[in-house]
Design goal:
Elements: H1 26-41, H2 48-55, H3 59-65, H4 69-93, H5 99-115, H6 123-130, H7 136-159, H8 165-186, H9 191-206
Helix pairs in contact: 1-2, 1-4, 4-7, 5-7, 5-8, 5-9, 6-7, 7-8, 8-9
């Protein structure tokens, strides 16, 4: 069980939301407008005219920066991923304690995210669910985003000396994705703690028992 040695303290405001950033250029205006609409209303359902209207820019300006809607989607996903990862891993870097504590803190950070009134789920999960399976650009962007998380989880499980690092990281990733989808559909942040309890059980099952001194 978690020893509770680290008290997790949320910050005054979260910086996970790319769409909430202040634009520094016409390109930023387009991307921020597109991010808000894609993530809250859907990638397929959002048309170019709606993006232009929200951004307050001309169609020529959009096509000067992006050759197509797909290019805009990929750019938004990359920006969403970078912004979210900076916030997420930044929050985890504040957690003190051993690897197990850091892993379980993931779910506390998720609950903080889920509790934000602007929470709309994971942009990558939403995009992959909407896009054609043949749309490799979207899938590549999602895979790259996921790999950052899996790499971090593998590092923690290696520190815990868990025998099957890859499978444990994958199992934790499934709990994370499941909590995200459940919280998005129900608007109930407590799914993060449900997933945390399952993660505790899994870690208990796969962590080697300490060797007894002779």
């Amino acid at each position: 069980m978690d020893d509770g040695s680290n008290e997790f303290c949320p910050p005054d405001e979260a910086g996970w939301n790319f769409a909430a950033l202040s634009p520094a250029s016409a390109r930023d205006k387009i991307m921020i407008a597109a991010s808000h609409l894609f993530c809250n209303h859907g990638f397929a359902a959002t048309g170019i005219d709606a993006i232009l209207n929200r951004a307050g820019t001309a169609k020529a300006t959009l096509y000067h920066h992006f050759r197509s809607k797909e290019d805009l989607i990929i750019a938004v996903l990359e920006a969403e991923g970078e912004t979210w990862r900076t916030w997420f891993f930044g929050r985890l870097s504040e957690v003190e304690g051993p690897a197990r504590t850091r892993i379980l803190a993931v779910f506390d950070v998720l609950e903080e995210w889920f509790s934000d009134k602007a929470f709309y789920g994971c942009a990558f999960i939403n995009a992959v669910a909407e896009c054609d399976a043949a749309n490799s650009a979207v899938h590549r962007a999602a895979d790259l985003h996921k790999e950052h998380l899996l790499t971090w989880l593998k590092a923690q499980t290696m520190e815990m000396k868990i025998p099957d690092v890859v499978e444990t990281a994958r199992s934790l990733a499934v709990l994370i994705d499941g909590a995200i989808v459940a919280a998005q559909h129900t608007r109930d942040p407590s799914f993060a703690q449900t997933a945390r309890r399952l993660a505790e059980c899994h870690l208990d099952a796969v962590t080697p028992a300490p060797k007894r001194k002779a």
